[in-house]
Amino acid sequence: MNPPTDSPPPSKRHPVLAILLVSLLALIVNCYPVIFCGKSFAATTGVAMLYDWWPPLPGMQPVPQTSNHGSDTPALLIGEIPMGFIESRSVWDHGELPLWDRYGHAGYTLIGQAISMLGDPLQCIVILGHGSATAWDIKFLCAKLLFCAGFGWLILRLTGNRRLSLAYAVLSAYCGAFFYINNHPAFFVFSYAPWILLSALNFLDLSSKKSIRWGLVWLLANFSCFNAGHVEPAVVLIAGLNLAALLCALLRYRNAAGALQIFCRIGIGGLLFLGLTAPVWMSFLGTLGGSYSSHLDVKVYQLPFQNAVGAFDDMFYQLLRTNSSLAPPAPASSLLIFVGCALSVLRWRQMKSNVFYWVNLAAIIVTGGCIFALVPGSLLAAIPFFNHVGHQDTDLSYLLVIQLTVQSAFGFKCLMEQNDLRRAAIDLAATAMVLAAMIALFCIGPLGHLPVPWGYLLCAGLGALGAPLLFCLLAARSQRIPIAGWVGIIILAFIPHFRFGYYNFGPDQWLMIPGVRADLDAPSPAIEKIKAAGPEPFRVMGMGFNLYGDYAAVYGLEDIRSSAPLSNRELINLFQNFPGLQFSGDWMIHITNLAAAQPLLNMLNVKYLLGPPQVALPSGMDFRLVEQSDFGVLENPEVWPRAFFSGRILTVTSNAEFIKTLNQNPTNPFVALTPEEIERQPGLEKLESAQPASISPAAHYQLLPNSTAFDIHAASAGIVCLTEGQASDFFATANGQAKKVLTVNEAFKGIYLNQPGNYHIEFIYRPPHWRLSCSLFWSALAAVTLLASACTIRRTHVYLYGANGKA
Predict the structure, then answer these.
(1) What are the DSSP calls for 740-796, one per residue?
(2) What is the reported pTM?
């Protein structure tokens, strides 16, 4: 009889399950205010939303404002949250995906913005949850759980060390980058990053028997990351992590046959990825040519080399915010990660046979060089598209955080394998000296006058150095570290990461304190009144920062303002050049003189202006004060109909001439075209001399997510104008017959009717190259489905009959 043996611990028998459970526990501790205390990732941190006063939402508790730590918080609050409501209404109420957004800038592409999140599987949570704050919180929590579990599994794959994989599953919840993106769309992009690298390493591993399965995971991870809501860092992460995995595979299999197989795998995978994402990137590229964007000029931003210490604690980046001439902060790792990276360099001999160690180290040098100006900015300025981003240092920092965190795991693995106390003390002393030198470089540079929090730095540094030193001390005394010892190691390791959890109270300039969960579409008495005023479509505009960004879309109101990255260029030209308006902040529009701006508001179908409750009625104008509740609402009685027929057209040759014509005819709807548009449609020349102009407003509107339909009477031959944007991307029908879509009134759309009569008109949006992109998508999806089916059939066959084909 064999003697009884102790069974291995669960972490050895089921390492992946152990990683998942530890990740879940770390998530609960890290995000306890959101899970248990009614706080929310989707809570405002001082950003205007519905109102430009505090609190910014109806019924919201007047709690103190919290800091956004320099992050672009409005990107979620006034961009993605309204988009979630648009998507949810479109799917639930109309059963279609929204490709177009009628709620901002008089209508523009939604899918072509490349930030719609429609391809992100986690966005289903928001759509199913009708865009609520609770749904967003669940999405954030699921994304962070994915990040923790993915990173734990990645470290297990790279180091083979189970204890280290569990430690990194916990550390990932406290990753320093989340401090900068705690409620930003980049949160979701970043959360898929470990899965991209993990799946790529396994997918390109020629010795793996699960390459097809990992290839499917690779496709899902890259597809999800690309569609997660912030396309610039997504492309950087996808490119950087896949390139590292590709180089690692090529260096492992140094023969022509192996290289050919690797390139075939990545080539086929890349084609499938391009096919699956074609509806987004083809729509984006097709829309880009005629769009306005704040990123049209070549802009390259890099951080000075003396700020390199900020990559290991964003406290140094936060100090940059005290000087507006310097770059904004960027995501960072932690001082504990710095210690691990330093150990990996000092103990390189232990890792000399590990290919990925060297690939990742080289990648860190290249990425860090691009961020901290060691790589000339002129090289970055030569990269198409990337040179227009304007925040290259920030986007590359997401990639650097992943690379540094992986590299630190190699350092701690070396320490665990050779935990000689004397050598560890020497290595940690050298690490402390390098860190001190980097901090000194930061302080003696142009930022030397900034108030560095030395107390925090001392505690974080001692914790980062003390955790590995205590481990070596206890390991040198005994082969089995007692529980009390592990508690001490965990506490010391936690100190550098303490700031990166979520808390209910504390110094909010250094801690993440989420706001209270609120009803994002709580009823507004003023909005309910104007929506009930009548069936005709209209637009609104908030005065000041009311209805900030795209927040009108949350309430189903159409606005002429928006925070969209891409907008109709000709419409923006009108905003920039029309008197009485100020176009600033890359996309904000303010009324500076209501009397001067009214002709444009008339044409744009802006019927209501929403200001503070005590808004004053403009003197000398016929605006009417129709509501004083949560908003003071001014009604514009001169507003043009959304769509109308005209039996006469005017010719304009420039933006300035159109503005002059509109100011001369502020209350009488008209249709103006350029000579080039008139030449496109035979019969229009006759309308230039028609006298007088017969105007008929449309009726019976049907406003759907991707189309606008209405009925109209034409008293003669003439043109129908619909004051909604993006004419070139629509096709139209009149009584079921296709009509050529013309650009009228500078930025809007119309069709020519060659005879009088009653017409049912429909304009339907389809992004540029839509049929081709859909064909590519469905072809790629069919190929992926076949691969998944083949993998399932093969696995079932092996399970039933064994590898040799016998039952």
Answers:
(1) --EEETTTEEEEEESS-EEEEEEEEE--TTHHHHHHHHHHHHHHHHHHHHHHHHHHH
(2) 0.94
